[in-house]
Design goal:
Elements: E1 7-11, E2 18-23, E3 33-38, E4 41-42, E5 49-55, E6 61-65, E7 67-70, E8 75-77, E9 89-99, E10 102-107, E11 109-114
Parallel strand pairs: 1-3, 2-11
Antiparallel strand pairs: 3-4, 3-8, 5-6, 5-9, 7-8, 9-10, 9-11
Length: 138
């Protein structure tokens, strides 16, 4: 099973500042899709190799191969792996596009990893509650 969202545009010359939200411990299901562009439009990725590199919240780095979905339109996807979501926080990522020993790095493709509540009891603590005298429970 794979889940997709819309195709997000990432620009070769601009700060992309994209944040994909995932939950701690999930993986193998979400595949962000990206269209790589410059000021002239889509970048043709024919003959390219594409990877996604992320620096995870605790400082380790992970590299995954991206799949080129439509080379002419510059559309790629990468898998969010379970190892990427082990710890909550923000992972800073980039696409690395290689062709003929030349590399284009497109940064600002990040993961926001929310804490999971699986297996934990969440308690709500409320202090100093005052019930107003004119309110009644019916």
């Amino acid at each position: 099973m794979k889940t997709y969202n819309k195709i997000y545009t990432v620009h070769a010359w601009k700060d992309n500042n994209k944040f994909f939200t995932v939950t701690q411990g999930e993986g193998g299901i979400k595949y962000p899709r990206l269209m790589v562009v410059d000021d002239k439009g889509a970048i043709d990725l024919t003959g390219s190799a594409v990877t996604y590199t992320i620096t995870l919240p605790r400082g380790s780095e992970e590299i995954v191969d991206a799949t080129i979905i439509d080379a002419k339109r510059g559309v790629v996807e990468f898998e969010v792996k379970p190892s990427m979501t082990a710890y909550a926080g923000v992972g800073e990522g980039e696409l690395n596009i290689t062709i003929d020993n030349k590399v284009l790095k497109i940064s600002g493709i990040n993961l926001t990893i929310n804490k999971s509540t699986s297996g934990r009891v969440i308690l709500s603590r409320v202090r100093n509650i005052r019930v107003l005298p004119h309110l009644q429970i019916l």
